[in-house]
Amino acid sequence: MNSKKRILGLIIAIVFLFVISYNVSAVVEPTREFYVNDYANLLSNETQKYIISVNRNLNSQTKAQVVVVTIPTLEGDSLEEYSTELFRSFGIGDKKLNNGVLILIALQERECRIEVGYGLEGVLNDAKTGRIQDNYMIPYLKDDNWDAGIKNGFNAIIEELEGEYNVNIGNAEPADNSGDINNVRVQMYLWSVIFGMPALIMNFACKGKRKKLKIVYLFVVPILVYLFNGNFLVVVTCTLICFFMLYFSSFNGRWSLLSFWFSWRSRKFRISWGWRFFRWRRKL
């Protein structure tokens, strides 16, 4: 009986060691340069040297590290699991501060991810890293301009870290934020419509009453927009538009954006209209 237990325990130990060795061998090993691991051959020599040089200055001033890894394929693994395992196996960032950042690109799956250590999750939360990918990287990556997209995303992260640590990385180039500006405008229009239309409907339904309901709505709007978007400009703009919709757009209220009035002259029914901004009107 004891021999059977020993054999069973030995089998379990062998399977456990196999699983561990498989997981470790599934991710790539860090190269001699460490900061750049271009296994998919997507980066030019100039970009690789640039990333290494900027990282050395960043690490000397803050102990933070931004490591770039490109791989040909995930080999069936999920992007999240692979990036987490890769982050741990590389040991990116300071051990105590846990202030490392990983930029992972999977060529065959055409996927990218920014993995952030716990020490930097305040400045590089999920909303911020997602926005960096959407606005700074993907506009290049979708056109197979991998070198420019990775470099631009790297520069955007460096800018965030410069602000967080209040340092200046002299040889770091500014990120191209043209895609970010365009995206902010789209987000402003989108969220303003999503939350502005219910505000307009609520205004007519309440007929100037239920002020508490309107105040609660104005508190809820910025919270929801921030959770879904994370951009301060979008949050403020959407909140102001909802405030305008709730209090300055009622046709039946004292304040009117657009007023219509009817006049009867010479037995003819004439409709006239005009724009009146913030004009005091009495209720009939």
What report would you give on this structure?
The chain has helices at residues 2-26, 45-62, 79-90, 126-141, 146-165, 178-206, 211-228, 232-247; strands at residues 36-38, 65-71, 100-106, 111-116, 255-265, 268-280. It is of the alpha/beta class and 284 residues long.
Describe how the helices and strands are arranged:
Blueprint: H1 2-26, E1 36-38, H2 45-62, E2 65-71, H3 79-90, E3 100-106, E4 111-116, H4 126-141, H5 146-165, H6 178-206, H7 211-228, H8 232-247, E5 255-265, E6 268-280
Parallel strand pairs: 1-2, 2-3
Antiparallel strand pairs: 3-4, 5-6
Helix pairs in contact: 2-5, 4-5, 4-6, 6-7, 6-8, 7-8
Characteristic key phrases:
single chain; alpha/beta; Diaminopimelate Epimerase, Chain A, domain 1; four-stranded mixed beta sheet; two-stranded antiparallel sheet; 6 strands; disordered C terminus
Total beta strands? 6
Distance between the termini: 96 Å
Assigned CATH class of the largest domain:
Alpha Beta
How many separate helices?
A: 8
Give the % helix.
40-55%
Low-pLDDT windows of residues: 18-25, 251-284
What CATH architecture of the largest domain do you see?
A: Roll
Estimate the strand proportion. Answer: 15-25%
Per the CATH scheme, the topology name of the largest domain is Diaminopimelate Epimerase, Chain A, domain 1
Secondary-structure class: alpha/beta
Strand ordering within the main sheet? 1-2-3-4
